[in-house]
Design brief:
single chain; about 400 residues; alpha/beta; de novo design (two linked rop proteins); Rossmann fold; 3 domains; 8-stranded mixed beta sheet; about 45% helix; about 15% strand; globular; Xaa-Pro-like_dom; Alpha/beta fold hydrolase; AB_hydrolase_fold
Length: about 400
């Protein structure tokens, strides 16, 4: 008998269900509550329009309750409400990541940003909204420190394709603070506010982004300059190791759901009969084939729409051809710091993690989370506490804490 998987939890639609488990993954860090999340799922059913409406409505209700608590002087209750609203608002817009920018995606982003800012002002830890210059652009960020005297080891949180810096608080930031780390949360090009408010798109040389973050952190007396770490999850599992190929001031890197050579896998998103034509085939023919696949598969449509928006491409073929520079092939051996890789057993993105592991010359560890542990999904969704335990235990030991 094979181990059960954490699928079919609340929705028959696998995309809905995957995003729902992603939402549930924030519960250990205050990002959602079980009952209100499941009741909302029942209201949504299989209606894609209802997905946005119902998660927004839940966010509105939780925000209103938090405002009442705050007005009555109940700061902890208010903070907890603002944090849950952050997740519900962010979740509402996930299926509207497509060019051109949809008003619903913009509303989702701005509402979750506002909710998190309200929460951050009430945190027990010191949270500061800052800006960091990256290639002439001032990007918004949050810098937070735990209780006690610094300097602190510090974790740079690197988010994924469709997340936000506010989500990274739940996806590693809160766990780091609890363990005495300072944290830096920032949307890089292609992510969250950098995409929606500044129109910046993904770039393969993520070392440019992380180097700017390290430069900024080194100006802060609260930061232990010898213990700056990058933690990347989902697409960040590629971006963080990519940054470490050139940014050698990092003391360690954690890549969750890492990918070795994204460009090499792009051809497999083409119909089989066209896979040898990715670079040379007629663009009109290939785009027509890709759009037919998108029409037949909501999952493929989401992949291409999200990719075109975040990378700034007009057609699905441009997106596939533009993936070539996103690789660690020929670069991974430049990483000099210790590296932890993590994958979930049920995540198709784990196919190339072993290639990356084998190419690393530095001290390294590879944790394979399993379905039997309830941790087999992408980014171990649904097993947040287990991921934090293993990842931060490794980090503590690696840094000699």
């Amino acid at each position: 008998m094979t181990d059960p998987t954490l699928t079919g939890v609340a929705f028959a639609d696998p995309q809905f269900d995957g995003q729902f488990v992603r939402l549930l993954d924030t519960i250990p860090y205050g990002g959602a509550d079980f009952g209100e999340a499941f009741i909302t799922a029942k209201l949504i059913g299989d209606d894609r329009d209802a997905w946005f409406v119902q998660w927004q409505a839940l966010g509105d209700r939780i925000m209103a309750d938090a405002e009442k608590s705050l007005a009555a002087g109940h700061a902890v209750s208010a903070r907890e409400g603002f944090l849950r609203a952050t997740t519900y608002y962010r979740t509402s817009g996930i299926f509207h990541l497509a060019p051109p920018l949809d008003d619903r995606l913009i509303a989702s982003y701005r509402n979750q940003k506002n909710a998190f800012r309200r929460a951050s002002a009430l945190m027990d830890e010191t949270f500061t909204s800052v800006t960091i210059p990256v290639d002439g652009q001032e990007l918004d960020a949050y810098f937070a420190t735990p209780a006690g005297d610094g300097p602190f080891p510090t974790v740079i949180l690197v988010g994924g394709y469709d997340g936000t810096m506010e989500e990274t608080y739940f996806a590693g930031g809160a766990a780091a603070l609890r363990r005495g780390y300072a944290i830096l949360l920032m949307d890089g090009p292609g992510q969250g506010g950098a995409l929606i408010e500044k129109g910046l798109h993904f770039r393969p040389d993520w070392e440019t982004v992380v180097t700017a973050e390290v430069d900024w952190l080194l100006t802060r007396p609260e930061v232990d300059a010898e213990k700056i770490v990058a933690l990347g999850r989902s697409w960040g599992g590629f971006l963080a190791p990519r940054a470490a190929t050139a940014e050698h001031r990092l003391a360690a890197v954690i890549g969750d759901a890492p990918q070795y050579d994204v460009g090499a896998g792009a051809k497999f998103l083409l119909p089989a009969e066209y896979r040898d034509q990715l670079e040379t085939g007629d663009a009109d023919t290939l785009n027509a084939a890709l759009r037919a696949e998108m029409a037949a598969s909501a999952e493929l449509a989401f992949t291409f729409d999200r990719g075109m928006l975040t990378h700034g491409f007009d057609t699905p073929l441009e997106y596939l051809r533009g993936s070539a520079p996103y690789t660690l092939a020929g670069l991974a051996d430049r990483i000099s710091c210790p590296v932890l890789l993590a994958t979930g057993e049920n995540d198709p993105r784990n196919r190339s993690a072993q290639q990356l592991y084998d190419a690393l010359p530095s001290p390294k560890e590879y944790i394979r989370f399993t379905n039997a542990e309830g941790a087999g999904e992408h980014d171990e969704a649904g097993a947040a506490a287990l991921f934090s335990q293993r990842a931060f235990d490794w980090l503590d030991e690696t840094l000699g804490r």
